[in-house]
Specification:
The chain is mainly alpha-helical and 187 residues long. It has helices spanning 6-20, 27-34, 48-71, 77-94, 96-105, 111-138, 147-160, 173-183. The protein contains eight helices and no strands.
Length: 187
């Protein structure tokens, strides 16, 4: 019999929160996923809320890392935006559990942690808004929409991709980045 680690517990919680939602997941469900009694989970974690904080925090870190990497891209604002879009897609497609839980379950965080995550989301959205403003100013991005609205539109599109995109489908990720840029009027 193998022993579950805290990492195993967090990963299983992420899977369940992403598919069933935080409110729809009990510690008993999580124990069943891991082959443990629900009460045994408390040797790994203090509470279900602690697990949500962990999974949402991991999602926030992944999204922030993608923005940080895009900020290091040389070139125009359009080049940075392309990197931001690709990074966002990598998070929502390669880390579906963390990404989906970050995007959909933060509302279930306690007030202190919810405030931290909302601040992280605002910084993330602001990075998209800023690159759109910079691109409009340097001429590398042509769009008729206000940058604040453009950022919301782009993020809404990007957040929905994980529901339908498959890596083995007709469209590569690089093609998908181009399609998102073209659809949003940036190309």
């Amino acid at each position: 019999m193998s022993r579950n680690t805290k990492e195993d517990v967090v990963a299983a919680a992420g899977r369940l929160f992403a598919t069933r939602g935080y409110e729809g997941t009990s510690m008993r469900d999580l124990g069943g996923e891991l082959g443990l009694l629900g009460s045994s989970l408390y040797s790994h974690v203090g509470s279900k809320q602690d697990l949500l904080v962990e999974v949402v925090g991991r999602g926030a870190e992944l999204f922030q890392r993608s923005i940080d990497q895009a900020g290091e891209v040389d070139g125009t604002a359009r080049d940075r935006l392309r990197s931001m879009i690709a990074g966002h897609l990598d998070v929502v497609l390669d880390h579906r559990d963390e990404g989906r839980t970050f995007l959909n379950e933060a509302r279930s965080l306690d007030s202190e942690h919810r405030s931290e995550i909302l601040s992280a989301r605002n910084r993330y959205e602001s990075a998209f808004r800023t690159v759109l403003e910079e691109g409009t100013a340097d001429g590398s991005i042509m769009m008729d929409t206000e940058p604040a609205i453009g950022a919301i539109f782009l993020l809404s599109i990007l957040n929905a991709v994980e529901r339908w995109y498959r890596d083995d489908g007709k469209l590569s990720r690089a093609d998908l980045v181009d399609e998102v840029l073209e659809f949003s009027g940036v190309l």
